Amino acid sequence: MSTHTRTTSAPASSPWALYDGLTALVPRGITVTTCVVSRWALVETDADGAGLSSVPADGRDDPHGPQDVVGQDLADVAALVRSWDRRLAAIGLAAINAWCNTQERLEAHAGDVIDWDASAFERADQLVEGRRVAVVGRFRHLDQLASRCDLTVLERQPQGDDLPDAAAEFVLPEVDHAFLTSMTLATKTLPRLLELSRDARTTLVGPSTPLAPEVFAGRVDEISGSLVYDAPWCRRALMQGQGMASMRGALTLFNLRVRA
To answer: Which domain of life is it from (predicted)?
Structure first.
């Protein structure tokens, strides 16, 4: 069993508490100017904000949900993160990131920046040496990570030695470090994953991660995500049906310590 301890927030009355905290950050009076959805959702605003979120491959599609969010208030679009429609939930998370994931907010938390422009896995080698580690989601750089630790990958569509995501109930309580894909915010599985990994050192990772340490305090130890600094680049890539590999040059990565 992990010996890691974290000062946890008081038990929430509902798993929605995490989502309420994120949407409360988004002010009114900002308008969505662009929304592009493929495998990723991109939301841009008239305040020069831009945010990304991965669109879950599996899930419900609601034909009665809003089909066009352009021109709507960003706060209303952010509230879609609560939707059970996979596309709308991703748009909502991208809207949250359009407000949260900015250079200004990153500079405001500069004292907690661990590393710039490197993924959580690229910098984790020494941190996980000889430890039991779980990664929820399939990421790049995991082969190098696996060479240094006892690694279990949990994936909704498992490949090779991956375990199905349902194994999280058994695996996460026993690990020392858990890396959780931020796409689980859109799928609504993150609150349970955080509960299961409460005794582990926990990193929320991926381009969908909101830069919102004030919300994640007491829930995770680190957040690892990205800022969109070239929205037109991302927009063109998504409109051409391309994925994250084609957008990496338009993003700045961050790794941030979350204060308890």
So the answer is: Bacteria
